């Protein structure tokens, strides 16, 4: 029964994050959705020791994004992201640092890989 509850919690978190991504600019949404899908897929076979940390970090991400979306409702300006503390960065594995760097490059470059328009078309 604990397994079913865990699967339900993971699925709920995953769906909530994708729902919150709908408030992001469409190109960042596409990038974020793909990253979330890849990470959740990659961690399907995570060890029992890794699961609590994985869930906690994604829960923190969801909470931060949810707060930013709610704050944006009042002032009509969406501001996404947060700084990572040096302490958090020290706990990252080399692969995670590489992924974070690639994500930062993709999300901040002026001509993103996919220039997706609001109507769903690409340039």
UniProtKB/TrEMBL annotation:
Biological function: Plays an essential role in the assembly of succinate dehydrogenase (SDH), an enzyme complex (also referred to as respiratory complex II) that is a component of both the tricarboxylic acid (TCA) cycle and the mitochondrial electron transport chain, and which couples the oxidation of succinate to fumarate with the reduction of ubiquinone (coenzyme Q) to ubiquinol. Promotes maturation of the iron-sulfur protein subunit of the SDH catalytic dimer, protecting it from the deleterious effects of oxidants. May act together with SDHAF1.
Transferase is among the record's keywords: no
Location in or out of the cell: Mitochondrion matrix
CDD domains in alphabetical order: Complex1_LYR_SDHAF3_LYRM10
Source species of the chain: Cirrhinus molitorella
Name of the protein in its database record: Succinate dehydrogenase assembly factor 3
Pfam families tied to this protein: Complex1_LYR_2
UniProt keyword list: Chaperone, Mitochondrion, Transit peptide
Coiled-coil stretches noted in the UniProt entry, renumbered to this chain: none
């Amino acid at each position: 029964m604990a397994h079913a509850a865990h699967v339900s919690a993971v699925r709920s978190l995953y769906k909530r994050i994708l729902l919150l991504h709908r408030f992001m600019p469409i190109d960042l949404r596409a990038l974020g959705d793909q990253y979330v899908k890849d990470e959740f897929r990659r961690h399907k076979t995570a060890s029992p020791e890794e699961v609590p940390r994985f869930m906690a970090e994604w829960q923190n991400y969801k909470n931060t994004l949810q707060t930013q979306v709610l704050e944006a409702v009042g002032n009509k300006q969406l501001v996404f992201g947060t700084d990572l503390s040096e302490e958090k960065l020290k706990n990252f594995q080399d692969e995670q640092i590489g992924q974070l760097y690639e994500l930062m490059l993709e999300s901040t470059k002026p001509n993103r890989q996919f220039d997706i328009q609001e109507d769903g078309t690409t340039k």
